[in-house]
Specification:
The protein is built from no helices and 14 strands. It has 191 residues and is mostly beta strands. Strand 7 (85-89) and strand 8 form a beta hairpin. The chain is elongated, with a radius of gyration of 24 Å. The two termini are 44 Å apart.
Length: 191
């Protein structure tokens, strides 16, 4: 189940042929980014597009293209739609689905991406839009999630493995911020 219905987007358009009873294709897109709908660096997002037809049968194939969102990378082999030709076009950095003529609807198409790690400073959203038969009239508004960007603090402690009885020992504590954000008011406690 989709934990956040607020980020789902839908549209209705004619695609897949004409005639006296043309198909009326509708799509509903969602993204699963966990219950909080916040995206962490390196997190896998699953996009789903539900395709329905409230009109006549589609006489021609219906092509749905879905460009991979900025600041993400396609997860190899994740494009899928039952009985639908699904492929990743690396040259155009997009997923392409071809729904055959006279298809029995509905169908759910899906693919996955991995958020950049780190997510670049200043990125406030990851948005994704798909297209039905390349038509501007058949474009959904973007599906949007918000990345979480934080400092990544790493601490290491080094010192000798042994010390003679009554001797002194010194340790070196190294704290590094791997980014991408500034670590403000960071406190390190050594116990």
């Amino acid at each position: 189940p989709d934990p956040n219905l607020a980020n789902n987007e839908a549209t209705v358009c004619s695609a897949g042929g004409g005639g006296p009873n043309p198909p009326q294709i509708s799509t509903l897109k969602s993204v699963d980014a966990g219950a909080d709908q916040l995206v962490s660096p390196g997190e896998v997002l699953t996009y789903r597009i539900r395709v329905d037809n409230a009109g006549g049968p589609n006489a021609a194939p219906i092509v749905i293209t879905d460009p991979i969102p900025a600041n993400t990378t396609y997860v190899a082999g994740s494009a899928f739609g039952p009985f639908v030709a699904s492929a990743f076009n690396a040259a155009l950095n997009r997923v392409e689905y071809t729904i055959p003529p006279n298809f029995f609807f509905p169908v759910v198409l899906q693919f996955q991406v991995t958020a950049s790690n780190p997510i670049p400073t200043g990125v406030t959203e990851i948005a994704n839009t798909h297209f039905v038969d390349g038509s501007v009239g058949c474009v959904d508004p973007p599906c949007v999630v918000t990345p979480t960007v934080a400092a990544d603090i790493d601490a290491t402690k080094a010192g000798p493995a042994t010390v003679v009885s009554g001797g002194s020992i010194g340790y070196a504590l190294t704290v590094t911020n791997q980014g991408p954000e500034v670590a403000e008011n960071a406190v390190v406690t050594d116990t």
